[in-house]
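Fold this sequence, please.
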Amino acid sequence: MKKALLFLLICCTLGTASQAFSSEQVELRFSWWGGKARNIATLEALKAFEARYPNIKVKAEYTGWDGYFSRVTTQLNSGTEADVIQTNWNWLTLLSRSGDGFYDLNNVSKEIGLAHYSPESLATTTVNGKVNAMPISSNVMLFYYNAHTWEKAGVPLPTTWDELRAAGPQFKEKLGDNYFPLVLSEQDALLLVRSYMYQKYQKEMIDVKHKTFAWSHEELVEGLTFYKSLMDAHVAPTMKQVASFGKGINYEMKPWINGEWGGIYNWNALYTAEAGNLLPPNNLVMGPYLMRSGAKDAGQFRKTALMYSISSHTKHPKEAAMLLNFLLNEKEGVLPVGLERGAPLSKAGEKVLRDAGIWQDADPVIQGLTQAAKLPNTSATLPQLEDEQVISLFSNARERIDYGKKSVDQAATEFEQQINRILKRIMR
């Protein structure tokens, strides 16, 4: 009788253990944008995740930046988005105004590791009390320069806007027509002009309360005149000149790779990709943040760099949370990516990189955050300045000026005729 009871107990125990350790097969879709280095690093991390959790397979869906937002919005509208989505900070105002656009991560707080994040960082991705995304890193706009190119031009790195403007003719004279101190993309140019003007007036571009453009016509003309002065001084190639190299990311184009475009005004989180594309002996270093004489505020744009969101339609929220915890907090997921997506906001992720010697205070990605923290910078981070419609409208004004189709005053007038309609639409 005792033997029978013991046999029954063993069978029940084995049955329970078998049930505890067996899991159904799950497939997650994970979408992100990035360059070659980010893609390779992320795929390596996903391979490690699947080795840890053999019952979870991850289908990688990655593209470049161009068209990614349109693709994601189309998928969200049709309910066909990936389970895990790399998102941009300003998208929350467009895609999740009430906080219901993405899965509320409070529901998987333990699995996803919310405890590794400060309340301040989570506040940037929370809408109506719902955590819509995991903040990956912090991002600030900075000046990075190809030290080798500037040395060839015999010009010290600029500390003021006037010094930057003066470097253009020197580059042209010493190195030739194809060499420029800087290259600007669509958003870079907008935020550069915004910083220059904010340093003078401490005035935001957008009146959030009234949902209107805040600059006067004269101020907009002044900002666009400043931009034109940089083009006239050979500081950066015009949109027409950049377009001659095809459509794509500036730091993946031949003039950047060869060191002809000698600098960039861009996010610190992109430093790794920008520096990695340079051919030796070119080397990218951080420069001083340019300031006007007597400026009380830098007007530097800073934000949560990138985010990971979980689809509100996912059938596997727990497994999706496990994936993000692995990528952001676990050694095997954090190490392959390193600083490719910026300096982690996760305390666990930071420790992993510090212990491995990857997170170093001298690294330009980290240096950027340190420099930004020391700058006088009280300007608001407005998500509308990252909206594609606003950026496109500003780019149209630049294009009219660069191609000689409109005067600065005419380009400013055209911009004003449309900007408030766009703001009303995206801020409603």
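The two ends are 76 Å apart (CA to CA). Residues 1-22 have pLDDT under 50 and may be disordered.
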